[in-house]
Amino acid sequence: MAYNKIKYYKPNFAFLAPWILLYLFQLLPITHYNRELDPITIQLITLPLAMSLIFLPNRSIQKRFEIRSLKRFKQYKYNLALIVCYALFLVNFAFSGFLPFIRLIISGDSNYFDYGIKGLNGLFYAYANAFGVLSYYIFIHEKRKKYLYVILSIFVIFLLCMTRQNIISLIVEIAILHSICAKPINNFKLATYIIILLIGFGILGESRSGDIREIMGLKPEFYWLPNSFIWIYSYFFFNVLNLDNIVTSGHYALFDLSSLNSLLPSFLRGNPSDDLSSLEVVNFTISSYIQPIFIDFGFWGVLIITLVVVYLTVKAYEIAMKRKNFQAIGIYVVLFFCASFSFFINFWFYLPIIFQIPFILLLNKFIIKNE
């Protein structure tokens, strides 16, 4: 069958697909910013590709399509956890006195960075994201639409709070969970969903930043390319140029632990740096997971951390495929998302994403207790 040909839910695909695209986009001479990269930059962006080919999942693991019953699932505990989710949202809303999305519509300024209680808001995003994954897992087993309504309400909350990263992470994590617990999405449908998402991404980017063709220096002979493609190209292309600027500047291997800063609640972090000197274009602040680690620990730090995250993601996949319970699958889908968006920022060290894992462990113990 078609969906068996490309097993997109495997960890190696999560690493290979974005970084192969990144390589290909560097070869497309469609912008005036195209230039030859430093050899160290090329070595750095090769690391995730090399590590994902070294660590491969155990071939003896076979995909089994089966739905197990949740014999120890406690509905009243699920309802209590849902109340906690909504309560945390209301606390942040009451503290701020506004919702970023509503404020954007009314005034044109979302004031996103001032929303919520510092520290608590990031933990809430992680909790709500993990709870959304749990709700879909229960829906697969129980087939009751009320769990889909809960997921929809979480998406609405994320939209009102304008946390685009958690909207995308919840979509990706649910898709991978569905592929493991039920069956993979047909490749044609998957491609259609991705195209729709990219079109929406292009429209949103255009409304926020202006004419993308002018911003990224598109050559006139390529003006026929659609905006959605240009936006995606720019995010893959300029993060490498930003990294190359760090490499050529020699301002790296500082060993100041700055790469770990995003693991702390915002009220414990130092003041963010306003240094934009490494940015090729100020509109594109993307850095991939490599840049902050490289600045902090140098080339060998990137090598070691890449090795560790690839190994852990592959092992998490093997455990998820073997046990097929919420705890194992939940941990894997979070790591899968971090890998598939590693070209963007370091989500492994980003509190609203990676802290889903402790919440998945807590929710599993509190509500399901392993099937």
Give a structural overview.
The structure is a single chain. This protein has 371 residues and is mostly helical. The chain has one domain (1-56, 70-371). It has 14 helices and no strands. The chain is globular. The chain starts with 10 loop residues before the first helix and ends with a helix.
Question: What is the element layout, followed by pairings?
Answer:
Elements: H1 11-26, H2 39-54, H3 75-96, H4 100-107, H5 120-142, H6 146-161, H7 164-181, H8 187-209, H9 212-215, H10 227-249, H11 290-323, H12 326-340, H13 351-354, H14 356-368
Mean pLDDT: 86
**Biggest sheet details:** none
**What is the C-alpha radius of gyration, as a whole number of Å?**
21 Å
So how many helices?
14
List low-pLDDT spans: none
How many domains, as an integer? 1
Q: Helix-strand pattern, N to C?
A: HHHHHHHHHHHHHH
Q: How much β-strand is present in the residues?
A: under 5%
Could you say which structural class the secondary elements and strand pairing correspond to? mainly alpha
How many β-strands, per DSSP?
0
Q: Specify the helix fraction band.
A: 55-70%
What is the overall silhouette? globular
First-to-last CA distance:
30 Å
Q: Which keywords apply here?
A:
globular; mainly alpha; 0% strand; 371 residues; single chain
Short description:
The chain is mainly alpha-helical and 371 residues long. Helix content is 63%, strand content 0%.
